[in-house]
Specification:
single chain; 304 residues; mainly beta; Beta-galactosidase, Chain A, domain 5; eight-stranded antiparallel sheet; 22 strands
Length: 304
């Protein structure tokens, strides 16, 4: 970690009672946010929201205790940014799955204390020769985050070139739950989805989602709010979104989690991913000079 860089960040962007920059796990630089509503930690690598915990609540985001915090390595948990493609690259299998945004450095561009006590932060992806080699389109990506009683995450993509490009993206959000066997996900009833477990197939969701084995699904053509109803914590987590036509639901279950090596023995039981994105049939075409914004808003309420 560059201590001069850390000092410069704090001189420019720290706000008393809201945000400061510090050395985080593995020496990664993180923004530490603490205000009257919530606490959060965001790594500059990947503009990766690692934690968000409203006051008086259990954590809302799941972060692995066994994760690898190292330069160039994706962090297991929180909100990884899948950009500028989702899943394997359409033309080159050697390129990293889910794109490069989650493993490269972003720049902290702005911090603000808002009138309602929330904290606003803006990050920009730093282009390098390596990123341009993988994504040869003149473009920029920014992440706008508001940490408050709710967590607002906006991923903004600008096409600065003279040709359109296709964009795949997701906010690959890991949610903390008491036990995967004691929760349901509502809001996707009747939706068509791509089932990626076993032989790929198209299916239709019948009733709420319950998980008792590996789940890896892309729900298509849906802008619906999703509700994670967790009986163990007695909490309902709402994921509202805008300009996102796909919702991805994922839990690796036992065998796959063991192969990944950064979940821990029972880690898969305490998490579920509900991702707001534009993937598969729902990739977005961004025209020259235009910007595309995708927004997710996460909030929690008591479950009676």
């Amino acid at each position: 970690m560059n201590h001069a860089e850390l000092e410069s960040l704090n001189q420019r962007l720290a706000i008393s009672g809201h945000v400061r920059f510090k050395e985080g796990p593995g020496g990664l630089i993180v923004a530490e946010i603490a205000n009257t509503h919530a606490e959060s930690m965001i790594a500059l690598q990947g503009a990766h929201i690692m934690t968000w915990q409203p006051r008086g609540q259990e954590p809302v985001l799941w972060l692995s205790r066994f994760g690898k915090f190292a330069p160039g390595k994706s962090i297991r948990g929180g909100v990884p940014i899948c950009w500028p493609w989702f899943g394997p690259h359409a033309a080159d299998a050697k390129l990293p799955g889910h794109g490069f945004a989650r493993t490269v450095m972003w720049e902290a561009l702005e911090t603000r204390a808002l009138d309602d006590g929330a904290t606003f932060l803006r990050f920009g992806l730093i282009e390098t020769e390596a990123t341009r080699a993988q994504w040869p389109h003149a473009s920029s990506a920014q992440l706008l985050v508001t940490v408050g009683a709710e967590l607002r995450i906006e991923l903004l993509t600008q096409n600065a070139g003279n040709a359109p490009f296709q964009l795949g993206e997701a906010l690959h959000t890991y949610f903390h739950i008491h036990d995967v066997a004691g929760m349901e996900i509502r809001g996707l009833e009747g939706c068509a989805y791509l089932d990626k477990v076993g032989e790929p197939a198209r299916r239709t969701q019948q009733g709420p989602i319950v998980i008792g084995s590996e789940v890896d699904r892309i729900y298509l053509d849906t802008e619906a709010d999703c509700l994670i109803e967790d009986r163990g914590i007695k909490r309902r987590t709402r994921i509202a979104k805008k300009n996102s036509r796909s919702t991805v639901v994922w839990n690796p279950w036992i065998e796959k989690a063991e192969k990944m090596g950064d979940f821990g023995a029972e880690g898969y039981r305490g998490m579920v991913c509900v991702e707001s994105g534009n993937a598969a049939d729902n990739v977005v075409t961004v025209q020259p000079g235009e910007a595309h914004s995708m927004l997710a808003v996460i909030s929690v309420e008591a479950l009676a």
